[in-house]
Design a protein that fits this description.
The complex is a heterodimer of chains A (111) and B (113). Chain A has no helices and 10 strands. By secondary structure, chain A is mainly beta. In chain A, strands 1, 3, 4, 8, 9 and 10 form a 6-stranded mixed β-sheet that branches. In chain A, strands 2-7-6-5 form a 4-stranded antiparallel β-sheet, with no helix packed on it. Chain A is globular. With 113 residues, chain B is mainly β. Chain B has one domain: Sandwich (Immunoglobulin-like). Chain B has no helices and 11 strands. In chain B, strands 2, 4, 5, 6, 9, 10 and 11 form a 7-stranded mixed β-sheet that branches. A 4-stranded antiparallel β-sheet of chain B has the order 1-3-8-7, with no helix packed on it. Classes of the chains: A mainly beta (111), B mainly beta (113). At the A-B interface, strand 3, strand 4, strand 8 and strand 9 of A face strand 4, strand 5 and strand 10 of B.
Chain lengths: 111, 113
């Protein structure tokens, strides 16, 4: 179905601080989750993924946490930089190998 | 990961006309998808492009309005038919080998006047 939203929530952080972006997913049967970053005028770019048999996965400066009990996903960005400013989307694999995207969050990094 | 070339990058079209968007992947991929993104909003899945068979459409999207072709494992087209101003949006192609972690094209920004 459609993801309807007139405005994306915005998270403003100071350069060098840590950022936490949250996402609630819809399907308890989803078994694979991905975070994407979308910069203005570009397509979404893969950041990090996690399978449902894990609750935490770390990458370079990023960590994804999965709480299946409350169907919640979070993306933590350490030492946020101006280049991290973008829109961040979580996506879930709801079966059939297709991804359904969450509403998105705008991250603004203040220098 | 696959690299996707999508064209045109943008277009301005008259209402009632049709536009075909092309998606070329630099390697053979199992899965290809088409999404729509309204300005300031999230991505909505239009359909899964199936190689050699009819596309699988999501609720709210129909083949007559959004015909899709996928003649091989590296190429797909999406046509937006009989356009109206409500079709003004960004259309994105996505591809990968299954499960997720798909690559996206840069999108086609369509304005219907």
């Amino acid at each position: 179905g459609e993801n309807v939203g007139l405005h994306l929530p915005t998270l403003s952080v100071q350069e060098g601080d840590n950022s936490i972006i949250n996402c609630a997913y819809s399907n308890s049967a989803s078994d694979y989750f991905i975070w994407y970053k979308q910069e203005s005028g570009k397509g979404p770019q893969f950041i990090i993924d996690i399978r449902s048999n894990m609750d935490k996965r770390q990458g370079q400066r990023v960590t994804v946490l999965l709480n299946k009990t409350v169907k919640h996903l979070s993306l933590q960005i350490a030492a946020t930089q101006p280049g991290d400013s973008a829109v961040y989307f979580c996506a879930e694999n709801m079966g059939g190998n297709k991804l359904v995207f969450g509403a998105g969050t705008i991250l603004r990094v203040k220098s | 990961s696959a690299v996707i070339s999508q064209k045109p990058s943008r277009d301005i079209c008259q209402r009632g006309t049709s536009l075909t968007i092309q998606c070329q992947v630099d390697s053979q991929v199992t899965m290809m998808f088409w999404y729509r993104q309204q300005p300031g909003q999230s991505l909505t899945l239009i359909a899964t492009a199936n190689q050699g068979s009819e596309a699988t459409y999501e609720s709210g999207f129909v083949i007559d309005k959004f015909p899709i072709s996928r003649p091989n494992l590296t190429f797909s087209t999406l046509t937006v038919s009989n356009m109206s101003p409500e079709d003004s949006s960004i259309y994105l192609c996505s591809a990968g080998q299954g499960r997720g972690g798909y690559t996206f094209g840069s999108g086609t920004r369509l304005t219907v006047v």
